[in-house]
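Exam revision sheet. Question 4 asks you to relate a sequence to its structure. Input first:
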Amino acid sequence: MTLTRRAALGAIPVLTLPGLARAQGAWPQRSIRLVVPFAAGGAADSAARVLTPRMGERLGQGFVVENRTGASGSLGGNEVARATDGHSFLWDASSHIVNPSLLRGLPFDYATAFTPISLVVTFPSAVAVKNDFPARTLAEFVAAAKARPGAITVGTQGNATAGHLGLAAFSRAAGIEVIHVPYRGGAAAAQDLAGGAIDAVFTTLVSAGPVVDGGRARFLGVGTLGRVESRPDVPTIAESGFAGFESNEWAGLFGPAGTPAPVVSAMYDALAEAIAVPAIRQRLVQIGCVPVASRPAEFARFVTEGRAAMATLVREANIRAE
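Answer key, structure tokens:
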């Protein structure tokens, strides 16, 4: 089926591939390597594995998803930044726009080492509290935090992660002071929340969802501008008194610097077609994603603006890498 599909579409001619001398002629010539700099089974990795089979059908070659973790995602980033085979791509997240402000001595420059292709999905952030916490709304949570400055504990998926940065931004917007408790992943934070070890979490819906669904915690707000399809009863932080507030994790597709325009277009088209398939879209929603599939130019602006915003937040909130 794959070969028939490819023959119908026609191979993608790539006449010039600066720095990728081995990828001459039609593209793709072989399987496509997708480096995911996060652990297998996580939200970003799961989204990649939902989408790549259909993308492979469109392109006429399969995808090999390779998890390369470590150094806040920069090890995986370096694999693609130095790739010259014409078939390696990066499936990165918010660390892509945070790492430049946190990590020193990187062997590549995030601003110049990659070609943005698409913002694929977002993972809505959420505030959830343990069952016996007195607040039933976000406004009541803020009031409780103001009544007890520096006493309420809030877990995130780790130091300098999207959750930590989101919590810092929300604390500044709300004028509150809480105790940040970093974990090794949002699921671990959620489990401690369910057990009552911490008061609240600022992490993704997908991480906190199981303990909320199990009746061991409850959501107070989500970090999207509009309500989330999978959790329509949870109000947004923006509508809860913080107009314009937005804080979410995301996954995006990048090629190495110099990826030819025809290849960028082919990868984007394959991605957009996969996301448009109702069954695939529904599966993404089920695992806690909001499908996006932004165009390359739009994603490039998102990355540039996000990098600048994160640099300001990291500096003003005095966030440091562990």
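Marking note for examiners. The two ends are 48 Å apart (CA to CA).
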